[in-house]
Hints:
Oligomer: single chain
Organism: Dicrurus megarhynchus
Domain PARP14 second RRM: 6-83
Structural class: alpha+beta
Protein name: PAR14 polymerase
Helix content: 25-40%
CATH class of the largest domain: Alpha Beta
Distance between the termini: 20 Å
Pfam family, one: RRM_PARP14_3
Number of helices: 4
InterPro entries: Nucleotide-bd_a/b_plait_sf (IPR012677), RRM_PARP14_2 (IPR057050)
Amino acid sequence: DSAEATPSVVFENIQTCSPNCLQMLLENISGLTVDADFTVELIPEINVAVATFIKSIDTKEFVKKCSQDKRVRGFKMTARLLELTQTIKAENLPDIISTGYLTVYFESERSGGGPVSDVQLFPKENSALITFCDHKGNT
């Protein structure tokens, strides 16, 4: 168990629960308010939503509550902590972008970045994989 728990929880198999219903469900379980205390990002391509808590909570306990909740089980959703990663994918990049620019951009502390160890450009996809020296730079 990491002493530094992630503030994000992944909800899988969300297709039977509308975005508004999911937000209300998470408010009911957490006792918190969407937008003020947490955000929900939908990733419909992979049938997933990510709740990121702005207010500090015990996310491990929250995942446990979700797995025991009859409504969550009724929707056949699962909840788990978002794994910390050192690599992120940047998409919809301009045609003319360099690895140097991306390195400097993602190393900016002002935008939540950190030391970058590698940048792989994929010009045909207008995307790049950015690998940080540690997982703290990928917020």
